[in-house]
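Q: Structure tokens for this one, please.
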Amino acid sequence: MDARINPRDLLLESFRAAVAAADPAHILPPHLPVPPRGRTLVVGGGKAAASMAAAVEAHWPSDAPLSGLVVTRYQHGLPTRRIEVVEASHPLPDGRGEAAALRMLDLARQLGPDDLLLALISGGGSSLLAAPVEGVTLKELRQVTKALLGAGATIQDINTVRKHLTRLSGGQLARAARSGTTGASVLALIISDVVGDDPTHIASGPCAPDPTTCVDALERLQRFAITPPASVQRHLETCCSDVSADTPKPGDPCFSRVENRVIASARASLLAAAGHFEQRGIPALLLSDRVSGDAQQVARQHAALAQAMARRQPLALLSGGETTVTLRPRHGRGGRNAEFLLGLALALDDTPAWSIACDTDGIDGSEDNAGALLAPDSLTRARALGLDATAKLAAHDSHGFFGALGDLVVTGPTRTNVNDYRALLLGLD
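A: Here is the predicted structure, written as tokens:
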């Protein structure tokens, strides 16, 4: 091991390695198909949509027809020539995303049997492509989404509801492209931001069969004690009694010429980060790429593991996935990654450790930072500034805590998204 290693720099470098492993400019081109006899329509949505579209343009033959429309989060756009990029709101949908989704459906329905629908799907697509079903307003859809987010629902739970309240998700984009007997073939290239990498959950699966039903959507609302607007309740109840009004299910003929292909995932990024640590002479243990649950509880679990493995030093413990935060009515600022780190600082007690926790999209929740860094002396420095770590955690004010210490990690939009990256480094004081 190199004795000159700076733990802070090493953690930041490992995060950059994880993000680079999911960069569309490098990972997408090998998956591009041969251009079809007809035309190629590119559609899609998510935080990586613009960078995916740019990668397609850079490698698509100049003499092959190519056009399209993708929607990404505000400030995540890139200049393109053949594929239009629209910016819209995330995590709560807005009218720009709604209009883009409706245009995509109309364009998909115009494709013929010699054409290809190339869908570029990444995390964030659920809200960016949220065109509400008839009878439900965008305001009402936002209300339900906000309630689910605040209740600590998992992305799978949230998407189970959104699939049945929007027009494009839950396989409905594929169904539009495959309408009638003259439909196009469909290839969805997907950057996964969900635990398990199941295409049905990534951006609410616009090209994937939907195994959930409107009954399931109602059950999720009841589980999280959410009383939806009357229009939402009415739509879901009507759908429950009319199977034909539901999303297309596994085995539906509309998926006969449809392929969903995951091209980047949390696991691949964690393996890239592990390789970075090992190149510096530090063994790396990949705990899991499927960590979920409450951020504070996950922090306590990681702390217990670090304490149990304290003798195996130096060592890097890596994990990915997506934790959740259940907010109180009055709360401070912070995302799930900074909350994890603050909980970890308190749970580690006297065990010296460095750690980083960041969202690979560069945005921790709704804040301007990707996450934060934790050092062995973080609590000591906090006390010197008059910060009460326990009170800050209770108030969900992790952004304020790490901001005061100067330990926020700010990257700006990375234009990719394979969810959370966590590294816990032992044996480097």
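A few notes: The chain has a mean pLDDT of 94. The longest strand covers residues 284-294.
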